Amino acid sequence: MAQVTPNDIDAARERIAGKIERTPTVISQSLSDRLGVPVHLKLEHRQITGSFKLRGASNAVASLNTEQKARGVVAASTGNHGRALAHAAKLEGMRAVICMSRLVPGNKLDEIRRLGAEILIVGNSQDDAQQEVERLVAQEGLVMLPPFDHPAIIAGQGTLGLEMLEQVPDAALVLVPLSGGGLATGIAAAVKGVSPRTKVIGVSMARGAAMKASLDAGRPILVEELPTLADSLGGGIGLDNQLTFAMCRDLLDDVILLGEDEIAAGIRHAYAQEREIVEGAGAVGIAALLAGKVNAKGPVVVLLSGRNIDMGLHRTIVCGEALATSERAA
Ligand SMILES: *Cc1c(COP(=O)(O)O)cnc(C)c1O
């Protein structure tokens, strides 16, 4: 089976240079103290559009030929891919149609609409949204750019792996949020191409972890999609998954699952200790460290993948600890 290679990721990096930010990596003193090894945070939630998804979307759009660009692009998205694709398509002056399920929060819709993309809301799951995408490809000739299972998307996300190793050359372990696996497989391919002994571990929410369930089953399987604080990690991996299932199986060293309270603690820590606003999906790496679910023997790089959280929800989560603390003190 064809897999994405380090050469593909180098090519992606050249293609998207100037279209994305090279985000900083900073040391976390509090997490380093807690773990007893240096813990670095890759601040990719500060990427343009608020998530790393702009890397894959920019690479995929830039890889299209003139005739495909004239037809426009379509995708199913839990929000951040749609937002990134809308931004990337707008830069190219292209039409973009984004299909998504009813579970996607409203703040994500508004932003995509603002970027000039057309939005279609269909069904209660990513799989329903995906069927609408296939209809538009067949009936209107749009080019499908899926959120994760596509070589140009994976290669674009992989550029993060190159940056992380340049910023922390002695990284022993990289923690990556995991849903469909475009992010984790791109990073793993890049990281292991440069530093084969560096471990790459995926982190998902326990509620509806489709890739973990599929890896355990030995084949892509369907998992019920449930509401979670890590809403950007929701959705299936596709029963006809082409690339990311096999790449996760071959390249990831482990997958960690987290409860909702643990994810909330990650968001709170990011805010109170690191002064960073991250969404649930972006906080799972920190959450895994706080939950004591990671055994690190050397420098750790934690990817903060996105910041597109409803600010009312963020306030509730952050104030939750203030309440709990004052209750304890009382
Ligand atoms: C999409 C997304 C992920 C997961 O990426 P996959 O390639 O689907 O595994 C993680 N964090 C954020 C913020 C995302 O938007």
TrEMBL record:
Protein's UniProt keywords contain Chloroplast: no
Presence of the UniProt keyword Nucleotide-binding in the record: no
CDD domains xref list: Thr-dehyd
One of the record's GO molecular function terms: threonine deaminase activity
InterPro entries assigned to the protein according to its UniProt record, in alphabetical order: Ectoine_EutB, Ser/Thr_Dehydratase, Ser/Thr_deHydtase_PyrdxlP-BS, TrpB-like_PALP, TrpB-like_PALP_sf
GO process annotations (BP): isoleucine biosynthetic process; L-serine catabolic process; L-threonine catabolic process
Residue ranges of domain Tryptophan synthase beta chain-like PALP in the record: 19-306
Highest taxon of the lineage: Bacteria
Keyword vocabulary terms for this entry: Lyase, Pyridoxal phosphate
Cofactor(s) required, per the database record: pyridoxal 5'-phosphate
Signal peptide positions (record): none
UniProt family annotation: Belongs to the serine/threonine dehydratase family.
Name the UniProt record assigns to this protein: Threonine dehydratase
Organism: Mesorhizobium qingshengii
